[in-house]
Design goal:
The structure holds two protein chains of two kinds. Chain A folds into two domains: 198 residues, D-Maltodextrin-Binding Protein, domain 2, CATH 3.40.190.10; 210 residues, Periplasmic binding protein-like II (D-Maltodextrin-Binding Protein, domain 2, 3-Layer(aba) Sandwich). In chain A, β4 and β5 form a beta hairpin. Chain A is globular and about 85 Å long. By secondary structure, chain A is α/β, with parallel strands linked by helices. In chain A, the strands form two sheets. In chain A, strands 1, 2, 3, 6, 7, 8, 9 and 10 form an eight-stranded mixed beta sheet that branches. Chain A has a two-stranded antiparallel sheet with strand order 4-5. Helices cover 46% and strands 14% of the residues of chain A. By secondary structure, chain B is mainly α. Chain B has one domain: MetI-like (MetI-like fold, Orthogonal Bundle), CATH 1.10.3720.10. Chain B has a two-stranded antiparallel sheet. The longest helix of chain B has 33 residues. Chain B is flat. The two termini of chain B are 27 Å apart. The chains are: A alpha/beta, B mainly alpha. The interface between A and B is large, with 40 and 34 residues. Chain B: One of its GO terms (biological process) is transmembrane transport.
């Protein structure tokens, strides 16, 4: 063996040793998150976190909502509590948290530092993430849904939008604002099939019509009068006053239409408020008004409740570092950081009381209505009649993703004119009964 | 000439590769078959139990199954029809000498290099969107109502998008075949007074038959599993209007997280694909023997 080779081998060995030493010092967290504006902003601020925590490196996996759900669920479900999970921090919704926590897939977050101030979290959001008194995920942002409308078009139509409108007023306003020749559509609503798309909107709307997914014996209720009224009114609204192609419009498509000034009203997530009032993105930024989601005087409004939260899979190898990150990303300090860099309107909303007590934040035009909408949603008693499930726009059982997808397809088929409302409901009833029977809910 | 010993040696040497390849195919396939016989939902860990053929019974009785089957066949048939006839016409056109031929050929080939998701997104948002799309603008300029393609003719739209991607492939193969045709044969026919259409029908087309067979076989394999275009544009809907077998299996295994049912669907899809393949090989694969 000549000298050069020996020297090279020695150098390699040294490098390898140095490598292991370095690896022991620093921890790399793999974070799976959803590709919406707030999360991408968090990613761009990761340097702030790593500067404070020199031993922790962050690696981001940013995915579209559906893909994120598939990747994260398969990872967590197949690794379980064994120490081989791919992700150390996962972004999960309020639907998943109770189910996952029940399976033992998430690490409880009871020992977050005192300055995190758990008691500051909004009760409606915190309750959905707490199981048997233990917090299983930290909310990054929370949302409800509300009416966003064009003040100028309402004025032109000679109407006034109250803070708490009824469905009748919405119908009247939609008809008055529609001007198809100029491509102004009275109302834009979700039509794209999916349990997180049209089913979210329609379940929330159905709640205000007195409909429910299941009765107390888990019998599906799509053959009931309230569901018939919900779907008929929805189809009337969208086909008569909505934009063409509504059957494939989801959140993003409607957002684009509203920002272009093509929607008179849009009932959707409260987080959209910061996008439609941002003059860089929206042509109607100075004309947007906000109101609570409509009701029918039955005691429930047609708004939902959702939060994207950060949780730590039980299979993570870096639980302590992951906790530090989760605490940072959902802290008051992080909120202040965003406010300083991007302005108060861009702060992740809907999770902390202190944010809504802040006089600076109260100046944001949609702050009040967002908080009121969140407060108006009750996941424990979401419907007029009693139900055996929790969740406002979803049913918190593992089977719901599948059933919601199938039912959403039926509703979007009805909107596309392929089947009648009556037929769609009948199919939804059959499909839901079939899935629930298979899952063993009835004998 | 190979001796008995050298043959044995060759077999021995090639066997690791063959065994590896076989394992690579057999292991996942066997696992799919095994999972298809279990009640196995990802969201309910520890509840796996033997289910026998229940998943299959459930899959076949799924209301979406028949439409998925029909849609799969329509999609394959439709795209084949468009890409083969279009490919022949395109090849005829590109075979003519004209200025800038090389550049035009490159342009015609371009769609093949675009990723399916990207092309589907472009078609959905730039062309077919009933409010902001180019087609809608064209219709409005001509004083007509814009057509909402993905709602009114969803399957046709998907066939259109997929055909756009596969037409270049067919054109390229057919053009190459056309160029291998001896021009003297055509000249002789022309001198004998055969009109253009007859020259095409009796000389060019028979010459292309092998290439057409290759195109049909290769495209069928890929078209049976079209997925990205559907996911991006219509999500299988409205209703189940654009759900094909692949998409149905996706819905069951990744939206419902029902691994058992999804695997059963996968096994059914493999069997059906094989039936189609055998049928194709018998009917048109004979061309390849000649």
């Amino acid at each position: 063996m000549n000298k050069t080779i020996r020297a090279a081998m020695g150098a390699t060995a040294l490098c390898a040793l140095a490598g292991t030493a370095l690896a022991q010092d620093s921890v790399t967290l793999t974070i799976a998150t959803v590709n919406n504006g707030d999360m991408i902003r968090m990613q761009s601020l990761s340097d702030e976190f790593t500067a404070q925590h020199p031993g922790i490196k962050l690696e981001w996996v940013t995915l579209e909502e559906n893909v994120l759900r598939q990747r994260v669920t398969t990872d967590v479900a197949t690794s379980g509590a064994s120490h081989d999970a791919q992700y150390d921090v996962v972004t999960v919704g309020t639907y998943e948290v109770p189910i996952w926590a029940g399976q033992g897939w998430l690490v409880p977050l009871n020992d977050l530092p005192a300055e995190y101030d758990v008691d500051d979290l909004l009760p409606a959001i915190r309750n959905g993430l707490t199981i048997d008194g233990e917090l299983f995920a930290a909310p990054f942002y929370g949302e409800s849904s509300m009416v966003m409308y064009r003040k100028d078009l309402m004025e032109k139509a000679g109407l006034e939008m109250p803070d708490a409108p009824s469905w009748d007023l919405i119908k009247q306003a939609a008809a008055a604002m529609t001007d198809k020749d100029n491509e102004v559509y009275g109302i834009c609503l979700r039509g794209k099939a999916g349990w997180g798309e049209n089913v979210a909107f329609l379940s929330a709307m159905a709640n205000s019509y007195g409909a429910r997914w299941f009765d107390e014996n888990w019998t599906p209720q799509f053959d009931s009068e309230p569901w018939r009224n919900t779907l008929t009114d929805y189809l009337d609204l969208v086909t008569n006053y909505g934009p063409p192609g509504a059957a494939s419009n989801g959140f993003n498509e409607n957002l684009a239409l509203f920002q272009q000034g093509k929607c008179g009203m849009w009932i959707d997530a409260t987080v959209a408020a910061s996008f439609v009032t941002n003059p860089d993105e929206s042509t109607v930024a100075d004309q947007v008004g906000f109101a609570l989601a409509p009701d029918n005087g039955l005691g429930k409004r047609g708004n939902w409740l959702w939060a994207w939260t950060l949780g730590i899979p039980a299979g993570s190898q870096h639980v302590d570092a992951a906790k530090q990150f989760v605490a940072w990303a959902t802290s008051k300090e992080y909120t202040a950081l965003i406010a300083e860099n991007e302005g108060w309107a861009n702060v992740p909303p809907g999770t902390r009381k202190s944010l809504y007590d802040n006089p600076e934040y109260q100046k944001v035009p949609f702050a009040k209505m967002t908080l009121e909408s969140i407060m108006a949603a009750d996941p424990i008693n979401p419907t007029v009649d009693p139900v055996p499930y929790t969740g406002v726009q979803f049913v918190a059982i593992p089977e719901f993703q599948g059933i919601g997808t199938l039912v959403g397809q039926q509703f979007s088929a009805a909107l596309a004119g392929q089947v009648s409302a009556e037929q769609a409901l009948q199919n939804a009833q059959q499909l839901t009964t079939r899935e629930m029977t298979r899952a063993g809910y009835f004998k | 000439m190979a001796t008995k010993a050298s043959k044995t040696a060759a077999r021995l040497m090639i066997s690791p590769a063959v065994i590896l390849l076989l394992m690579w195919m057999i292991v996942p396939l066997a696992m799919t078959v095994y999972f298809s016989l279990l009640r196995y939902n990802l969201l309910m860990p520890g509840m796996e139990s033997w289910a026998g053929l229940e998943n299959y019974r459930y899959f076949f009785s799924d209301p979406a199954f028949t439409s998925a089957l029909v849609n799969t066949l329509l999609l394959v048939g439709g795209v084949l029809l468009v890409s083969v006839t279009g490919g022949v016409l395109m090849a005829l056109l590109l075979d003519q000498p004209f200025w800038g031929q090389g550049f035009v050929r490159l342009l015609v080939l371009a769609p093949f290099f675009v990723m399916p998701t990207v092309s589907a997104l472009v078609w959905k948002n730039m062309f077919m969107n009933p409010v902001n799309g180019i087609f809608a603008w064209l219709f409005k300029t001509l004083g007509m109502q814009p057509v909402d393609f993905l709602t009114e003719a969803p399957l046709m739209s998907i066939i259109g998008i997929v055909s756009w991607q596969w037409l270049p492939f067919a054109s390229l193969i057919l053009l190459t075949a056309m160029q291998s045709l001896d021009s003297e044969q055509l000249e002789a026919a022309e001198m004998d007074g055969a009109p253009t259409l007859k020259r095409f029908w009796f000389i060019i087309l028979p010459h292309l038959s092998r290439a057409i067979t290759v195109v049909i076989l290769i495209e069928t394999i890929f078209l049976l599993s079209v997925f990205a275009e559907i996911l991006v544009t219509t999500n299988g809907g409205p209703g189940t209007a654009t759900t094909n077998l692949t998409f149905l299996v996706y819905v069951q295994s990744l939206l419902q997280f029902d691994v058992g049912l999804g695997s059963a669907g996968g096994v059914v899809a493999i069997i059906l694909a094989n039936i189609v393949a055998i049928f194709l090989m018998r009917m048109i694969g004979k061309n390849l023997d000649a």
